[in-house]
Design goal:
There is one protein chain. It is built from 19 helices and 4 strands. Helix 5 runs parallel beside helix 18, helix 8 crosses helix 17 and helix 16 runs antiparallel to helix 17.
Length: about 525
């Protein structure tokens, strides 16, 4: 009977899976038919429902830094965005059914997030709404609003339950190493067409640069390697990396940093160096026996790099161009041109700050206006930053905050960052000992990101999800915001023994039994 039941269930599974597999095969063979996927989207989600119910939280953390998209949904939304909505919805349903279920209590984080959500919504409504091309609108940019709401909702979804301490490193690995999928987008020129189906899930990341001069920049690969860098610091810390008996961890950490510099992005190198220094400080190593090896390592790197700086690969020279090194004129010119381009754009948009101080510009833009700006830019009839200005992509954190969302958005953003840094510091100070290295990395990484946002490079609408993800992971690991444990001292009455010789006369007489 059991065998017959097993066979029956197998037949049912095959009866459901085989038609879907055939349909998917036909659609994959006919890319033009992808527009007809909407009718089967619901059916695919129903098939995945049991897996989603069981693994939605790990999938949320794993997908947060992935480039994966859900290609069968309209607009091809990012996977982390979909998982944020699914996880929060599932948790709310469970909370309604299970009264004993409790979310992580963190009002100091949720209040600024809710305020930011209100400001974003109000600004969008007052500046043209949520225009999206997939719904036939001539205005575009609505997807950026969706990503901002998704970052807020994702942080709330992470706070629906605490991560068990024994699974802390697993979730940290899922969160940071999910960025390894960025490499897939850079492989378009190295794989055969039979693997092109991968780019339906992991979009192509166009390699920028000029191959004739050797200035090739791999954005996705650099992001992926940075994920490995954060994970190693969270798992081993600097003390354990420098103090280990073997040098494998140190060699791997240095190799990851060196390979990341091949990407040609100065901001990435600054972010990694700043995070490393902050972790070193928060681990209390400046006055320890590890200070000398660290200084020796930096000196050795300088001795190797300085004489050979102009002979390094062009992309690496561009990465190091912010340092006072002798590098190739080609790399110097490329880096200086990028800096001048940003300064030129900032000088053009700074006079607009008073105009949008009380009511921001919003993120909506006219598609025809954007196309016209790009055409004039490519033909040389306008400045090279015209397209970026039209798209509100100012390559500057404060400007991308205050111009689209005014002073109210800027105040909400500062409120959230202050609350996030405070929560991260308290968890670093009073968190469990087994989470010490993780909390140290998360605090240093958040602080380094904040410094980079204000002084090097930032983009409010795209960076919001990065910051909320770091904070959400931190609070989920620690079960909220930790506080110092108060030790209550019990005061007991003390009985003093007075020698008989010092007692009053009548007290001594009573003690002797006399009337």
């Amino acid at each position: 009977m059991t065998t017959d039941g097993t066979k029956l269930r197998a037949l049912v599974v095959y009866a459901a899976v085989v038609p879907v597999a055939l349909l998917l095969g036909v659609l994959l063979a006919s890319p033009a038919e992808f527009t007809h996927w909407a009718p089967i989207t619901l059916f695919l989600l129903l098939l995945l429902f049991p897996l989603i119910m069981k693994w939605h939280r790990p999938l949320l953390f794993a997908s947060w830094n992935m480039t994966a998209v859900v290609f069968f949904l309209p607009g091809h939304p990012r996977l982390w965005l979909v998982m944020a909505f699914i996880t929060l919805t599932t948790a709310l349903v469970q909370r309604a059914l299970l009264r004993d279920m409790r979310f992580i209590y963190a009002p100091t984080i949720l209040l600024p997030l809710l305020y930011l959500a209100f400001i974003v919504y109000l600004t969008a409504k007052l500046t043209g709404g949520f225009g999206m091309a997939i719904f036939g609108s001539e205005s575009i940019g609505g997807h950026r609003y969706i990503e901002m709401f998704g970052g807020i909702i994702g942080c709330m979804a992470m706070l629906t339950a605490r991560i068990p301490p024994q699974k802390a490193m697993l979730y940290v690995g899922l969160f940071f190493l999910g960025s390894l999928t960025d490499i897939i987008g850079n492989t378009i020129n190295f794989v055969t067409p039979s693997f092109y189906y991968l780019f339906l899930i992991f979009p192509v990341d166009v390699v920028s640069g000029d191959s004739s001069s050797g200035m090739i920049r791999f954005y996705g690969t650099s992001v992926a390697l940075m994920g490995v860098f954060w994970y190693m610091l969270a798992r081993f810390g600097i003390r354990e990396t420098l103090g280990g008996r073997n040098l494998k961890r140190l060699a791997l950490l240095v190799a990851v940093a060196v390979l990341t510099s091949f990407g040609g992005y100065r901001s990435f190198f600054i972010l990694m160096a700043l995070t490393f220094v902050l972790v070193f400080y928060f681990e209390g190593l400046f006055r320890s026996r590890f200070a000398l090896p660290a200084v020796g390592l930096c000196v050795a790197a300088a001795v190797i790099v300085i004489p050979l700086a102009d002979k390094l690969p062009m992309s690496m020279q561009r990465t190091l161009s912010f340092l006072p090194l002798k590098i190739s004129p080609v790399a110097r010119l490329d880096a200086d041109a990028s800096t001048e381009w940003r300064i030129q754009m900032w000088n053009r948009v700074l006079p607009d700050v008073p105009r949008y101080l009380w009511l921001g510009k919003g993120l909506l833009m006219d598609s025809q206006e954007l196309d016209m700006a790009n055409m004039e830019q490519s033909s040389g009839r306008s400045e090279s930053s015209a397209g970026a200005r039209t798209a509100s992509d100012y390559h500057n954190g404060p400007l991308t905050t205050i111009i689209p969302f005014g002073i109210w958005g800027a105040l909400g953003w500062i409120w959230f960052l202050a609350a996030a840094l405070r929560a991260s510091y308290l968890n670093y100070m009073y968190g469990e000992e087994q989470l010490k290295k993780i909390n140290t990395l998360l605090l240093a990484y958040l602080l380094a990101r904040t410094i980079l946002f204000f002084f090097v490079f930032g983009n409010f609408y795209s960076d919001l999800g990065i910051f909320t993800g770091i904070v959400g992971l931190n609070l989920a690991l620690n079960g909220g915001i930790r506080k110092p444990v108060r030790v209550h001292t019990v005061v007991r009455p003390v009985t003093l023994s007075i020698p008989t010789a010092f007692k009053p006369a009548h007290t001594a007489a009573v003690g002797a039994g006399k009337p």
